[in-house]
Amino acid sequence: MQVLGQHKLQQLDDQILIDLSERRTPEKTSFFLFLSKYNDVVNVGVPVGLLAAGVISNDKQMRQNALYVASSSAVNVVATLLIKKLVKRPRPFNGLVKINAVYQPSHYSFPSGHTSTAFTTATALSNSYRKWYVIAPAYLWAGSVSFSRLYLGVHYPTDVAAGAVLGTGSALSMGFLRGDK
């Protein structure tokens, strides 16, 4: 369904979500709900785990990296909330073209907070530990969480893209806190 005068990017956003909603299965839906539900656990668990390991092993660099990841996340959360309040974009299920969402979170849609936090953690962790076996799973997690937001019908693709940029930028902006030797 097209609304007269609707911007082409919005039409693309809508069509992607409609296509995804038509291809949902109970198994995939359960998997993507799991990813979305436990995103915050991972984003808090990473710096807490680094801090605990740094304290136990008396590793100053690891403790500093924990501070970097946590500070990046804090900056990201504040920036995300401010942008959401400024932009006030309605969720896809409240838009001009009603998107069938698996569930209906409150608040605004732009940018995706799940995506921004996942990318903040992935970027900060990858900058701290530049090994493929850290980077690959970190970004696989971030990308999967991001896709889950689309699959579940709770964010537009442009919300997710903006969240990825914001999350990455938040981590990069706090890079001075990294515990490099």
UniProtKB/TrEMBL annotation:
Protein name in UniProt: Phosphatase PAP2 family protein
UniProt cross-references to CDD domains, sorted A to Z: PAP2_like_2 (cd03392)
Q: What are the boundaries of the signal sequence?
A: none
Q: Which domain of life is it from?
A: Bacteria
> What topology does it adopt in the membrane?
Multi-pass membrane protein
Where's it mainly located? membrane
- What is the protein's species of origin? Pedobacter gandavensis
**What are the Phosphatidic acid phosphatase type 2/haloperoxidase domain coordinates in residue numbering?**
65-175
InterPro entries xref list? PAP2/HPO, PAP2/HPO_sf
What keywords tag this UniProt record?
Cell membrane, Hydrolase, Membrane, Transmembrane, Transmembrane helix
Where found?
Answer: Cell membrane
